[in-house]
Amino acid sequence: MPEVSAALNAPRPIPLMTPTEPAPAANPPDLLTPATPAAPAALAEAAPAFSPLYQQIKALLVASLQAGEWQPGQAIPSETELAARYKVSQGTVRKAIDEMATDNLLVRRQGKGTFVATHAEAGTQYRFLRLAPDPGMPAALQRRLLDCRRMRAPAEIARLLALKAGEPAVQVRRLLLAAPEEGGTSLPVVLDDIWLPGTLFKGLTAERLAVWRGAMYRLFEAEFSVRMIRAEEKLRAVAAAGEDAALLGVPAGAPLLSVERLSYTYGDRPVELRRGLYHTQAHHYRNELN
Q1: Confidence (pTM)
Q2: Are residues 33 and 50 in contact, defined by beta-carbon separation less than 8 angstroms?
Q3: 31 Cβ partners below 8 Å, 6+ apart?
Q4: Most buried residue, 12, 75, 193, 203, by CB count within 10 Å?
């Protein structure tokens, strides 16, 4: 069947470039340019090495987030302080921060300042989950952990997570069920197989997952210092088979939506592979396109 690929929150971090300009005048330039004229051919070759100054400031701010200088939920310095730190105008800093807010890396709060985005906030807890209930269906989903184990990453999983051959991985298998009306029966909606790099998630166990009550990405952020920045998904229609069909409560051959998501943290590093089978009898996949 045809396959559809979609990038979620797609902007990718740019290569880090430290501004090299001296202390600016009142209105510093918005684009770094070569110090001396060059032949047209040389300029054409050199052009990719230059980027708008605000993007270089953005790259430096992202590097600070990646290094843990400011933790999720913590306020970052003011625009004035950052302008002094990087020796650029406040407008350049503001433009960098605006773009980072659009990328869901930072959150502006009126009258309070700018904060590092966190999966603990209601608006970002489930921002990669595009499953929505049909009218009349409850919105809440319950979780049922099926398995959590450590093993050597299979070759395909290692390739997608950029792991070396034989490196450890954690596999988590779970069901998401539609919360029933009082006295009703839970409806299986999603069967998830989740793969994580073992070195980043040391200590992740079935017991730890069983007692966690928040979003899984919030657990990753709070206890393992791994924050999901963006994700890419592949969707296709598949037929239910074997154990998967039994867990989702559908007959063999029933249509399901297969969603493969690869999530990335800072530095465009893949840190989660999630393969979900969606039963769309009473739910649908919803996305907003700009």
Answers
A1: 0.70
A2: yes
A3: 50, 52, 53
A4: 193
What is the biggest distance separating any 2 CA atoms in the chain, rounded to whole angstroms? 77
What gap in Å lies between CA 201 and CA 198, rounded to an integer? 5
146 φ, ψ to 5°?
A: -100, -35
According to CATH, the topology of domain 131-285 is Chorismate lyase (3.40.1410)
* 3-class DSSP assignment, residue 194: strand
Residues, the chain, total? Answer: 290
Q: Are strands 113-116 and 106-109 parallel, antiparallel or unpaired?
A: antiparallel
pLDDT tens string 128-186: 666 777 887 767 788 899 999 999 999 999 999 999 988 999 999 999 998 766 666 78
CATH code reported for the domain at 9-116? 1.10.10.10
- Per-residue HEC secondary structure of 238-262 comes to EECCHHHHHHHCCCCCCEEEEEEEE
What does the domain layout of the chain look like in residue ranges? 9-116, 131-285
End-to-end CA distance of the chain: 26
Are 106 and 115 a contacting pair, CB within 8 Å?
Answer: yes
DSSP character for 64? H
Tell me if 108 sits within 8 A of 102, measured CB to CB.
no
- Cite the DSSP H helix spans in the chain: 40-46, 53-66, 79-86, 90-102, 155-160, 206-211, 216-224, 242-248
CA dihedral for 5, 163, 216, 151, sign (positive or negative) = positive
Mean pLDDT over each residue of the chain, to the nearest integer = 81
- Residue at token pair 């050199």: 46
- DSSP helix/strand/coil, 10: coil
In this structure, are residues 277 and 249 in contact, taking their beta carbons and an 8 Å threshold? no
CA distance linking residue 279 with residue 163, whole number of Å:
31
